[in-house]
Protein backbone atom coordinates (compact mmCIF):
# COMPACT_ATOMS: atom_id res chain seq x y z
CA UNK A 1 0.00 0.00 0.00
CA UNK A 2 1.29 3.44 -0.92
CA UNK A 3 2.01 5.42 2.20
CA UNK A 4 0.18 8.74 2.32
CA UNK A 5 2.38 11.37 3.90
CA UNK A 6 0.46 12.91 6.78
CA UNK A 7 3.60 14.20 8.56
CA UNK A 8 2.40 17.77 8.55
CA UNK A 9 -1.14 16.99 9.72
CA UNK A 10 0.11 15.13 12.79
CA UNK A 11 3.09 17.40 13.56
CA UNK A 12 5.61 14.62 12.89
CA UNK A 13 9.27 15.58 13.35
CA UNK A 14 11.00 12.22 13.02
CA UNK A 15 10.60 8.45 13.03
CA UNK A 16 13.10 6.09 14.63
CA UNK A 17 13.09 2.34 14.10
CA UNK A 18 15.24 0.21 16.41
CA UNK A 19 15.70 -3.55 15.94
CA UNK A 20 17.58 -6.21 17.88
CA UNK A 21 18.48 -9.62 16.45
CA UNK A 22 19.64 -11.91 19.23
CA UNK A 23 22.19 -14.37 17.82
CA UNK A 24 23.36 -15.87 21.11
CA UNK A 25 22.31 -15.40 24.72
CA UNK A 26 24.45 -16.71 27.57
CA UNK A 27 26.74 -17.99 24.79
CA UNK A 28 24.13 -20.26 23.20
CA UNK A 29 21.99 -19.69 20.09
CA UNK A 30 18.25 -19.73 20.89
CA UNK A 31 16.31 -22.66 19.41
CA UNK A 32 13.93 -20.08 17.91
CA UNK A 33 15.88 -16.83 17.49
CA UNK A 34 13.64 -13.77 17.87
CA UNK A 35 13.80 -10.21 16.65
CA UNK A 36 12.47 -7.31 18.66
CA UNK A 37 11.77 -3.86 17.28
CA UNK A 38 10.42 -0.51 18.33
CA UNK A 39 9.06 2.20 16.05
CA UNK A 40 8.95 5.66 17.61
CA UNK A 41 7.31 8.80 16.24
CA UNK A 42 8.18 12.24 17.57
CA UNK A 43 5.13 14.49 17.30
CA UNK A 44 4.21 17.96 18.51
CA UNK A 45 1.95 17.80 21.58
CA UNK A 46 -1.29 19.32 20.26
CA UNK A 47 -2.51 20.14 23.78
CA UNK A 48 0.31 22.45 24.88
CA UNK A 49 -1.22 25.45 26.59
CA UNK A 50 -4.57 23.75 27.28
CA UNK A 51 -5.70 23.03 30.84
CA UNK A 52 -6.54 19.76 32.61
CA UNK A 53 -10.24 20.02 31.77
CA UNK A 54 -9.62 20.33 28.02
CA UNK A 55 -11.37 17.70 25.87
CA UNK A 56 -8.69 15.64 24.13
CA UNK A 57 -10.89 13.74 21.72
CA UNK A 58 -10.64 15.85 18.55
CA UNK A 59 -6.86 15.69 18.29
CA UNK A 60 -6.89 11.99 19.24
CA UNK A 61 -9.24 11.17 16.36
CA UNK A 62 -7.04 13.17 14.01
CA UNK A 63 -3.59 11.94 15.07
CA UNK A 64 -3.82 8.48 16.64
CA UNK A 65 -4.99 6.51 13.58
CA UNK A 66 -2.19 7.94 11.44
CA UNK A 67 0.34 7.11 14.15
CA UNK A 68 -0.99 3.55 14.43
CA UNK A 69 -0.63 3.08 10.67
CA UNK A 70 2.83 4.66 10.39
CA UNK A 71 4.31 2.82 13.36
CA UNK A 72 2.86 -0.61 12.59
CA UNK A 73 4.00 -0.29 8.96
CA UNK A 74 7.53 0.28 10.23
CA UNK A 75 7.32 -2.65 12.66
CA UNK A 76 5.93 -5.03 10.05
CA UNK A 77 8.72 -4.07 7.62
CA UNK A 78 11.41 -4.39 10.30
CA UNK A 79 10.20 -7.77 11.57
CA UNK A 80 9.39 -9.55 8.33
CA UNK A 81 5.61 -9.37 8.09
CA UNK A 82 2.49 -9.49 10.26
CA UNK A 83 2.58 -13.27 10.58
CA UNK A 84 6.12 -13.16 11.95
CA UNK A 85 5.03 -10.93 14.83
CA UNK A 86 4.06 -12.81 17.99
CA UNK A 87 4.21 -10.21 20.78
CA UNK A 88 3.46 -6.52 21.05
CA UNK A 89 3.50 -3.49 23.34
CA UNK A 90 3.21 0.30 23.19
CA UNK A 91 4.53 3.38 24.97
CA UNK A 92 4.48 7.15 25.20
CA UNK A 93 7.11 9.59 26.48
CA UNK A 94 5.60 13.01 27.12
CA UNK A 95 7.76 16.13 27.11
CA UNK A 96 7.92 18.19 30.28
CA UNK A 97 5.34 20.79 29.23
CA UNK A 98 2.65 18.13 28.74
CA UNK A 99 0.57 15.82 30.92
CA UNK A 100 0.95 12.03 31.05
CA UNK A 101 -2.74 12.14 30.12
CA UNK A 102 -1.71 13.51 26.71
CA UNK A 103 0.47 10.45 26.06
CA UNK A 104 -2.33 8.20 27.28
CA UNK A 105 -4.70 9.93 24.88
CA UNK A 106 -2.55 8.98 21.91
CA UNK A 107 -1.96 5.32 22.87
CA UNK A 108 -4.84 4.18 25.10
CA UNK A 109 -7.89 4.89 22.97
CA UNK A 110 -9.34 2.71 20.19
CA UNK A 111 -8.04 5.23 17.66
CA UNK A 112 -4.55 3.85 18.32
CA UNK A 113 -4.93 0.57 20.20
CA UNK A 114 -7.68 -1.06 18.14
CA UNK A 115 -5.93 -0.18 14.90
CA UNK A 116 -2.51 -1.34 16.13
CA UNK A 117 -4.09 -4.64 17.25
CA UNK A 118 -5.81 -5.07 13.88
CA UNK A 119 -2.76 -4.11 11.80
CA UNK A 120 -0.59 -6.57 13.75
CA UNK A 121 -3.16 -9.39 13.64
CA UNK A 122 -3.66 -9.65 17.40
CA UNK A 123 -6.56 -9.75 19.83
CA UNK A 124 -4.88 -9.30 23.21
CA UNK A 125 -4.97 -6.10 25.22
CA UNK A 126 -1.71 -4.29 24.39
CA UNK A 127 0.55 -3.81 27.39
CA UNK A 128 2.27 -0.43 27.78
CA UNK A 129 4.61 1.94 29.56
CA UNK A 130 4.47 5.71 29.79
CA UNK A 131 6.51 8.47 31.37
CA UNK A 132 7.18 12.20 31.26
CA UNK A 133 10.81 12.97 30.59
CA UNK A 134 13.42 15.14 28.94
CA UNK A 135 14.86 14.32 25.53
CA UNK A 136 17.08 11.24 25.43
CA UNK A 137 15.38 9.39 28.27
CA UNK A 138 15.17 5.61 27.84
CA UNK A 139 11.89 3.79 28.44
CA UNK A 140 11.54 0.03 28.86
CA UNK A 141 8.53 -1.17 26.85
CA UNK A 142 6.81 -4.39 27.97
CA UNK A 143 5.61 -6.88 25.36
CA UNK A 144 3.36 -9.89 25.61
CA UNK A 145 1.77 -12.39 23.22
CA UNK A 146 -0.56 -10.74 20.70
CA UNK A 147 -3.24 -13.42 20.87
CA UNK A 148 -2.57 -15.16 24.20
CA UNK A 149 -1.39 -12.53 26.65
CA UNK A 150 -0.76 -15.03 29.48
CA UNK A 151 1.86 -16.94 27.45
CA UNK A 152 4.74 -16.66 29.90
CA UNK A 153 7.54 -17.36 27.39
CA UNK A 154 6.62 -14.14 25.60
CA UNK A 155 6.84 -11.80 28.62
CA UNK A 156 9.74 -9.59 27.57
CA UNK A 157 10.81 -5.97 27.24
CA UNK A 158 12.65 -3.79 24.76
CA UNK A 159 14.21 -0.40 25.48
CA UNK A 160 13.24 2.62 23.39
CA UNK A 161 15.02 5.97 23.22
CA UNK A 162 15.21 8.94 20.86
CA UNK A 163 18.35 11.00 21.43
CA UNK A 164 16.80 14.45 20.92
CA UNK A 165 13.17 13.84 21.85
CA UNK A 166 10.79 14.58 23.40
CA UNK A 167 11.30 18.32 23.55
CA UNK A 168 9.12 19.95 26.22
CA UNK A 169 6.28 20.41 23.73
CA UNK A 170 6.54 16.98 22.07
CA UNK A 171 5.38 13.40 22.64
CA UNK A 172 7.23 10.26 21.55
CA UNK A 173 4.70 7.57 20.61
CA UNK A 174 6.05 4.02 20.39
CA UNK A 175 4.81 0.71 19.01
CA UNK A 176 6.93 -2.35 19.77
CA UNK A 177 6.85 -6.00 18.75
CA UNK A 178 8.79 -9.25 18.80
CA UNK A 179 8.85 -12.31 16.56
CA UNK A 180 9.10 -14.77 19.43
CA UNK A 181 9.80 -15.53 23.03
CA UNK A 182 12.70 -14.68 25.33
CA UNK A 183 15.89 -16.37 24.07
CA UNK A 184 15.85 -19.35 26.46
CA UNK A 185 12.39 -19.50 28.11
CA UNK A 186 12.28 -22.11 30.85
CA UNK A 187 10.07 -20.89 33.68
CA UNK A 188 7.06 -22.98 32.79
CA UNK A 189 3.58 -21.75 32.08
CA UNK A 190 0.14 -21.77 33.65
CA UNK A 191 -0.37 -25.25 32.26
CA UNK A 192 2.71 -26.64 34.00
CA UNK A 193 2.61 -24.66 37.26
CA UNK A 194 1.96 -26.52 40.50
CA UNK A 195 -0.93 -25.16 42.56
CA UNK A 196 0.76 -22.52 44.74
CA UNK A 197 -1.07 -20.91 47.64
CA UNK A 198 0.02 -19.63 51.04
CA UNK A 199 -1.25 -22.96 52.38
CA UNK A 200 0.87 -25.17 50.08
CA UNK A 201 3.92 -23.06 50.97
CA UNK A 202 3.22 -22.97 54.69
CA UNK A 203 6.56 -24.55 55.53
CA UNK A 204 8.53 -21.99 53.46
CA UNK A 205 6.61 -18.95 54.66
CA UNK A 206 6.51 -19.80 58.35
CA UNK B 1 33.86 -13.95 16.01
CA UNK B 2 31.50 -14.64 18.90
CA UNK B 3 28.40 -12.61 18.05
CA UNK B 4 25.71 -11.91 20.67
CA UNK B 5 23.38 -9.62 18.80
CA UNK B 6 22.93 -7.23 15.91
CA UNK B 7 21.20 -3.86 16.35
CA UNK B 8 19.67 -1.88 13.48
CA UNK B 9 18.55 1.74 13.87
CA UNK B 10 16.97 3.86 11.16
CA UNK B 11 16.06 7.53 11.65
CA UNK B 12 13.83 9.42 9.22
CA UNK B 13 13.72 13.17 9.80
CA UNK B 14 10.53 14.79 8.49
CA UNK B 15 10.95 18.34 9.82
CA UNK B 16 13.90 20.31 11.16
CA UNK B 17 13.88 23.87 12.43
CA UNK B 18 10.12 23.77 11.93
CA UNK B 19 10.43 23.25 8.17
CA UNK B 20 9.66 20.17 6.13
CA UNK B 21 12.56 17.97 5.07
CA UNK B 22 11.71 16.36 1.74
CA UNK B 23 12.57 13.71 0.93
CA UNK B 24 12.87 12.72 4.61
CA UNK B 25 16.51 12.60 5.73
CA UNK B 26 17.60 9.02 6.45
CA UNK B 27 20.41 7.74 8.65
CA UNK B 28 21.01 4.07 9.47
CA UNK B 29 23.25 2.35 12.00
CA UNK B 30 24.01 -1.35 12.30
CA UNK B 31 25.97 -2.54 15.34
CA UNK B 32 27.35 -5.96 16.21
CA UNK B 33 27.85 -6.90 19.85
CA UNK B 34 30.79 -9.32 19.88
CA UNK B 35 33.06 -10.86 22.46
CA UNK B 36 36.35 -8.98 22.79
CA UNK B 37 38.80 -11.32 20.97
CA UNK B 38 41.42 -10.59 23.65
CA UNK B 39 39.13 -11.00 26.67
CA UNK B 40 40.79 -12.70 29.62
CA UNK B 41 44.25 -12.73 28.04
CA UNK B 42 45.87 -9.92 30.03
CA UNK B 43 48.03 -7.47 28.07
CA UNK B 44 48.46 -8.85 24.56
CA UNK B 45 51.44 -7.21 22.87
CA UNK B 46 50.69 -8.29 19.32
CA UNK B 47 47.03 -7.87 18.34
CA UNK B 48 47.51 -9.16 14.79
CA UNK B 49 45.98 -12.60 15.27
CA UNK B 50 42.78 -11.32 16.90
CA UNK B 51 42.47 -8.63 14.24
CA UNK B 52 42.89 -11.14 11.42
CA UNK B 53 40.38 -13.52 12.96
CA UNK B 54 37.71 -10.86 13.52
CA UNK B 55 37.99 -7.52 11.69
CA UNK B 56 37.15 -8.67 8.17
CA UNK B 57 34.28 -10.88 9.35
CA UNK B 58 32.59 -8.12 11.33
CA UNK B 59 33.09 -5.65 8.47
CA UNK B 60 31.54 -8.14 6.04
CA UNK B 61 28.57 -8.66 8.38
CA UNK B 62 27.81 -4.98 8.92
CA UNK B 63 28.45 -3.36 5.52
CA UNK B 64 25.59 -4.92 3.51
CA UNK B 65 23.16 -4.63 6.43
CA UNK B 66 23.69 -0.91 6.99
CA UNK B 67 23.15 -0.18 3.30
CA UNK B 68 20.04 -2.37 3.25
CA UNK B 69 18.69 -0.54 6.32
CA UNK B 70 19.39 2.85 4.73
CA UNK B 71 17.45 1.76 1.62
CA UNK B 72 19.03 4.55 -0.43
CA UNK B 73 22.51 5.29 -1.82
CA UNK B 74 24.89 6.31 0.99
CA UNK B 75 26.40 9.79 0.74
CA UNK B 76 28.07 9.91 4.15
CA UNK B 77 29.41 7.25 6.48
CA UNK B 78 31.20 6.55 9.74
CA UNK B 79 32.15 3.80 12.19
CA UNK B 80 32.43 3.04 15.89
CA UNK B 81 34.07 0.69 18.37
CA UNK B 82 32.83 0.81 21.95
CA UNK B 83 34.89 -1.39 24.23
CA UNK B 84 33.50 -2.98 27.41
CA UNK B 85 35.10 -2.01 30.70
CA UNK B 86 37.52 -4.93 30.96
CA UNK B 87 39.10 -4.23 27.55
CA UNK B 88 41.43 -1.60 26.10
CA UNK B 89 40.31 1.09 23.64
CA UNK B 90 43.22 -0.30 21.60
CA UNK B 91 41.20 -3.50 21.11
CA UNK B 92 38.35 -1.61 19.50
CA UNK B 93 40.74 0.45 17.42
CA UNK B 94 42.42 -2.76 16.30
CA UNK B 95 39.16 -4.04 14.87
CA UNK B 96 37.99 -0.92 13.05
CA UNK B 97 41.20 0.86 12.03
CA UNK B 98 42.22 -1.74 9.49
CA UNK B 99 41.55 -1.83 5.77
CA UNK B 100 40.21 -5.39 6.12
CA UNK B 101 37.34 -3.96 8.21
CA UNK B 102 36.61 -0.74 6.34
CA UNK B 103 37.06 -1.95 2.78
CA UNK B 104 33.85 -4.00 2.96
CA UNK B 105 31.89 -0.78 3.54
CA UNK B 106 33.94 1.30 1.09
CA UNK B 107 33.43 -1.24 -1.69
CA UNK B 108 29.71 -1.72 -1.01
CA UNK B 109 29.10 2.05 -0.89
CA UNK B 110 31.42 2.95 -3.81
CA UNK B 111 33.31 5.12 -1.33
CA UNK B 112 36.88 6.29 -1.31
CA UNK B 113 37.53 8.34 1.82
CA UNK B 114 38.63 7.24 5.26
CA UNK B 115 35.77 6.42 7.61
CA UNK B 116 35.52 8.87 10.50
CA UNK B 117 35.35 7.00 13.80
CA UNK B 118 34.57 7.04 17.47
CA UNK B 119 36.39 4.73 19.84
CA UNK B 120 35.71 4.69 23.55
CA UNK B 121 35.34 2.45 26.56
CA UNK B 122 32.27 2.31 28.70
CA UNK B 123 29.57 0.33 30.47
CA UNK B 124 26.51 -1.27 28.93
CA UNK B 125 24.02 1.40 27.94
CA UNK B 126 26.67 4.01 27.20
CA UNK B 127 25.57 6.65 24.70
CA UNK B 128 27.94 7.23 21.80
CA UNK B 129 27.96 9.49 18.76
CA UNK B 130 29.14 8.18 15.39
CA UNK B 131 30.63 10.92 13.19
CA UNK B 132 29.85 10.77 9.47
CA UNK B 133 31.55 12.45 6.52
CA UNK B 134 31.04 12.36 2.77
CA UNK B 135 31.98 9.03 1.17
CA UNK B 136 34.21 10.45 -1.60
CA UNK B 137 35.24 13.91 -0.38
CA UNK B 138 35.73 14.44 3.35
CA UNK B 139 35.84 18.21 2.90
CA UNK B 140 32.18 18.47 1.84
CA UNK B 141 30.87 20.43 4.79
CA UNK B 142 27.17 19.75 4.25
CA UNK B 143 27.74 16.08 5.06
CA UNK B 144 29.57 16.48 8.41
CA UNK B 145 27.04 15.06 10.87
CA UNK B 146 26.63 12.60 13.74
CA UNK B 147 24.15 9.97 14.82
CA UNK B 148 23.64 8.96 18.43
CA UNK B 149 23.41 5.32 19.55
CA UNK B 150 22.62 3.48 22.76
CA UNK B 151 22.25 -0.25 23.32
CA UNK B 152 20.68 -0.88 26.71
CA UNK B 153 22.64 -4.03 27.60
CA UNK B 154 25.90 -3.69 25.65
CA UNK B 155 28.84 -3.73 25.77
CA UNK B 156 29.32 -6.15 28.67
CA UNK B 157 32.80 -5.82 30.25
CA UNK B 158 34.20 -8.54 27.95
CA UNK B 159 32.50 -7.29 24.76
CA UNK B 160 33.01 -4.75 21.98
CA UNK B 161 30.24 -2.99 20.06
CA UNK B 162 31.36 -2.47 16.45
CA UNK B 163 29.08 -0.25 14.36
CA UNK B 164 28.74 1.31 10.93
CA UNK B 165 26.59 4.33 10.11
CA UNK B 166 25.38 5.59 6.74
CA UNK B 167 23.40 8.68 5.72
CA UNK B 168 21.56 9.22 2.45
CA UNK B 169 22.23 12.98 2.51
CA UNK B 170 23.91 15.73 4.45
CA UNK B 171 22.41 17.49 7.44
CA UNK B 172 18.75 18.36 7.08
CA UNK B 173 18.48 22.08 6.21
CA UNK B 174 22.24 22.26 5.64
CA UNK B 175 23.12 25.77 4.52
CA UNK B 176 26.76 26.50 5.38
CA UNK B 177 29.04 27.99 2.78
CA UNK B 178 31.44 25.39 1.32
CA UNK B 179 35.00 25.21 2.55
CA UNK B 180 36.25 26.50 -0.82
CA UNK B 181 34.39 29.79 -0.27
CA UNK B 182 36.75 30.57 2.63
CA UNK B 183 39.96 29.87 0.75
Provide a compact summary of the structure.
With 206 residues, chain A is α+β, with helices and mostly antiparallel strands. Chain A has helices at 57-79, 100-107, 113-119, 202-205, and strands at residues 12-22, 35-44, 87-94, 127-132, 139-145, 156-160, 170-178.
Could you please describe the fold and organization of this structure?
The complex is a heterodimer of chains A (about 210) and B (about 180). With about 210 residues, chain A is an alpha+beta fold. Chain A has a single domain (about 10-205), classed as 2-Layer Sandwich (60s Ribosomal Protein L30, Chain: A), CATH 3.30.1330. Chain A has helices spanning about 55-80, 100-105, 115-120, 200-205, and strands at about 10-20, 35-45, 85-95, 125-130, 140-145, 155-160, 170-180. Chain A is globular. Chain A starts with 11 loop residues before the first strand and ends with a helix. Chain B has about 180 residues and is an alpha+beta fold. Chain B has a single domain, classed as 60s Ribosomal Protein L30, Chain: A (2-Layer Sandwich), CATH 3.30.1330. Chain B contains 3 helices and 7 strands. Chain B has helices at about 50-70, 90-95, 100-110, and strands at about 5-15, 20-35, 75-85, 115-120, 125-135, 145-150, 160-165. In chain B, strands 1, 2, 3, 4, 5, 6 and 7 form a 7-stranded mixed sheet that branches. In chain B, β1 (about 5-15) and β2 (about 20-35) form a beta hairpin. The mean pLDDT of chain B is about 95. The interface between A and B is medium-sized, with 25 and 22 residues. β1 (about 10-20) of chain A pairs antiparallel with β1 (about 5-15) of chain B, so a sheet runs across the interface.
Amino acid sequence: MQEIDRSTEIGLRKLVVYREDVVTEAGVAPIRPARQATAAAVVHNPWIGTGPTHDLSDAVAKMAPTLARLLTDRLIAALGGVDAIEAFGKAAIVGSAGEIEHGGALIHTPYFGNLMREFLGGDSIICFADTRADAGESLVVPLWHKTAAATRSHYQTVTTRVSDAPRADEIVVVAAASTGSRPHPRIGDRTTDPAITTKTLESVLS
Amino acid sequence: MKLRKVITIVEEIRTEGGREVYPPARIAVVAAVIENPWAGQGFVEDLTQGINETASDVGALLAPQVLEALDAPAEAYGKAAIVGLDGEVEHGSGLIHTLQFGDHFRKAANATTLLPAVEKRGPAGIVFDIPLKHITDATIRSHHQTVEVRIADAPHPNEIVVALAAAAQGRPQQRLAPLSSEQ
